[in-house]
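Archive entry. Fields below.
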Amino acid sequence: MPDKQASILIVDDETSVRDSLLHWFRKDGLRVGTAANATAALQALEQASYDIVLLDIKMPGMDGMELQARIHAIDAKIVVIMMTAFASVDTAVRALKQGAFDYVTKPIDPDELSHLVGRALKERKLEDENSQLRETIAELSSADFIVGDSPAMQNVMALIRQVAETNSTVMIRGESGTGKELVARTIHAQSPRKFFPIVPVNCGALPDSLLESELFGHEKGAFTGAQFRRKGRLEMADNGTLFLDEIGTIPPKMQVDLLRVIETSEVMRLGGTRPVKLDFRIICATHEDLEKAVADGRFRHDLYYRINVFSIRLPALRERREDIPALARHFLERLARQMDKRVTEFSPEAMQKLLAYPWPGNVRELANAVERSMVVCRGNAIAADDLPFTVSGGPAAAVPGTGSLAEMEKVHIAATLVRTGWNITQAADVLEIDRATLYNKIKKYGLQRSPTDASGSGDPKPS
Amino acid sequence: MPAAPIHLVPIYLPNHTTVLAQLAPRLEQAFATSVVVRASRFDPEGAFDGSRGQYHATALLDLLLGEERDARVLGVAGVDLFIPILTYVFGEAQLEGTAAVVSTYRLDNAIYGLPKDDRLLLDRLTKEAVHELGHTFGLLHCRRSQCVMHSSTYAEDIDLKSARFCTSCDPMAGPGRK
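PREDICTED_STRUCTURE:
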């Protein structure tokens, strides 16, 4: 990415000093602003952003010390360098304690000034990079990954790979708890924007009034209680990805504002006068029927067309039951590490119960169920009774009627195998078929024994 | 269109006839234009700051411009220059303007207690003169250490760069202005 033009604001009541510095820094290629007093300086900072402020301590009206504190309150990242004609240790110490980057006595040696500004710009750049890296590390360390070998999930993974590299807006649809945010994070992590933040906004969780300032940010004094300038989520996502969860719940006025942002790549902070140019990718998610919302007039059709560019539909957990054992084990291992508990497996009965449950809350419900069972579990294996739900009837009876006969057969065989600890003879007995038929079905459905399945007899593992 | 001629104006410059006679052809080569020494007398005293014992570089630029409209003017001073915020400057120029000034005062090895070196002094003067005149062509400081538009704050820094523009700075090389 090309270097952004560095900027400096010179605040001094002497015209000759302002002019000298203005010309000096212009020749260095900096964007230079000047202000003759504190009021003009605060105005300048409202109209444009600056990396560095070079500030005279002694000025009529509000002095440099007080102005420094005000600047710090507006944007703590601005590097302030204090200048004075009358060097005194006391003021130097006060300025530095208050957070000034450095303190110089007028007149300044040209080499000192060059080095000082060079260092200040470097510091500013490092600080920006540092905060971006922190966010990235925080994301990476908390990152989860998508689990599932089912054809439905393999299809989702293929779509993710296909779209991640592009800059396309992505719409993720799926029931609550199917992992829409995880998919958004996976797309971001595989995209060229991965070194910049992904900023999630749950549009449904914020009241209308807060959503606006949350998204667009606000200037100091934009409304009662806006004591500081605050960057909005859109600005935080600059160079990265903005994840708009529950996009279907955005109120009509915000839909207009959001559409404008998407079209112009510019935002205006609340109470601001200057648009900020941004570059981010949008990923949206919804569990709602957006087409119906458009038909009912609750969702703008122009915004709908803007965001519905590349759609990924996540299957409900009941549509990919074969992933349940792997998912359950994944949560078990992760929680065992987090809770420092020596729970290593599910009893065959517990696994059968997991396979039989309809999971209306999808993967999130499964994760919560595993977490609860981890808390109450007393041995090495989670027992059926540890699971916080009941399943009526046998496993087959509990499989809802959404799947095909073959799917039900597959699930039933898988459950039986888990229950018998992959003892083929025993499982064939339970299923009332011969061993050769069972082997064929195992092969046909691609069933595989996982290392954490309850161990059975020495029956060979089907390849 | 050929560039406007450059007028050289000596300001308390020791041996000014010799020095300017050596400087002129070097500037002619750099800017592909004629360079002449201005005949009229120049009074710099309006730019003198008694409390600092130095000449105000920006004020000198205003005085140098005078009536001149059709030429670039380069003042070549033997005295020390300053701008209000800085202790000294080697030179000063109007960005995209017509006036520039350079001083030999701090380019001379003698003021650092080193043996006098007229050849080195002329090299440094040439580089700073080309540099300041470059600003009048709208050129900014260049990051390339060899380019004459690279910023120098010590006399030794000047010795590290060449007297030439890099390809992207050269004002004679068409619209590639920075």
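CURATOR_NOTE: The first strand of chain A starts at residue 7 and ends at 11.
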